[in-house]
Design goal:
The complex is a heterodimer of chains A (114) and B (153).
Chain A lengths: L2 H20 L1 H9 L7 H14 L2 H13 L4 E5 L2 E2 L14 H4 L10 E3 L2
Parallel strand pairs in A: 1-3
Antiparallel strand pairs in A: 1-2
Helix pairs in contact in A: 1-3
Chain B lengths: L2 H5 L7 E2 L7 H15 L5 H14 L8 E2 L2 E3 L7 E11 L9 E9 L7 H12 L3 H9 L3 H10 L1
Parallel strand pairs in B: 1-4, 2-5, 3-5
Antiparallel strand pairs in B: 4-5
Helix pairs in contact in B: 2-3, 5-6
Chain lengths: 114, 153
């Protein structure tokens, strides 16, 4: 898997976790179960570190996408972009997806093959 | 939701009867290896990184001898639960400082339809408050016995 794509997925996962912690209702629910949610600063620090490893062009493209969509990186399932449900051309569904950061030709979201 | 509903998200292929790891990071790595061998999930690095980030937020070892590593990641398409036992116990930064013997690892996709992940976590943390059930689960040998132990609580 492309290391930059791996980073983009990790950043998005981390942002989801940070949002969950910052969601008062969900954080309360977790605390009720006994989970300590005190390390938010550590998550934010890790987020900064991961972002710094991104190539500037990927960082700015990812940021632009997050301004429009809930998720900038989406999985391809059954040859469909799960962001917009457009068909992914067969030429994409080859070894190339492991070597490049590719965007959906229809919606622009970054594609990830789980 | 009850324990029978929660167990629909796991299987005998996702039951590890005796972890060999001796620390938190290698325990998580061993569990993710188990997840990968028991499911179509392939991206070990992403799942492991998410779990390690979650542990940075605060240890998930919240029950006496029990931990619930969990989180959401793009690397999975549906809620998947792996169960693991450790006979020796593994240091997992539990509040009581004692080693952890039982693990429920819950991995969910970013879109958690119907909040199945949170509800499953709530069921598991709740039933593990029961000391006799916890003891039976820790002693259970094999996946089927383990499920019976949980459902008899």
């Amino acid at each position: 898997m492309n290391p930059q794509l791996q980073l983009l997925v990790a950043i998005q996962d981390l942002e989801l976790m940070i949002r969950d912690v910052e969601d008062a209702e969900q954080a309360h629910e977790m605390e009720e179960m006994g989970f300590d949610m005190g390390g938010l600063d550590k998550l934010k620090e890790a987020h900064k570190e991961l972002q710094a490893k991104l190539e500037p062009r990927h960082r700015s493209y990812y940021r632009r996408l997050t301004q429009h969509f809930g998720h900038a990186v989406v999985p391809v399932i059954n040859n469909l972009c799960t962001g917009c449900f457009a068909n992914i051309p067969a030429s994409f569904v080859s070894q190339t997806h492991k070597e490049k950061v590719l965007a959906c030709e229809n919606c622009g979201r970054i594609l990830y093959w789980p | 939701m009850d324990i029978a509903d929660v167990l629909k998200h796991t299987s005998a292929d996702l039951f590890l009867p005796d972890l060999q790891a001796t620390d938190k990071e290698s325990a998580l790595s061993e569990m993710v290896d188990g997840l990968i061998s028991g499911t179509p999930i392939t991206n070990k690095e992403t799942v492991l990184q998410m779990l390690l980030s979650r542990e940075n937020l605060g240890s998930t070892a919240v029950g006496p001898g029990v931990a619930f590593p969990h989180g959401r990641t793009l690397a999975v398409q549906k809620l998947t639960i792996l169960i693991a036992q450790s006979k020796k116990g593994i240091p997992f930064d539990a509040e009581d400082g004692k080693p952890t013997h039982l693990f429920f690892m819950l991995i969910a996709p970013p879109q958690d339809s119907g909040h199945q992940y949170i509800k499953s976590l709530a069921v598991l943390t709740d039933i593990m408050q029961n000391a006799s059930l916890r003891k039976s689960a820790m002693k259970a040998e094999g996946y089927d016995s383990f499920c019976v132990a949980l459902q008899e609580g």
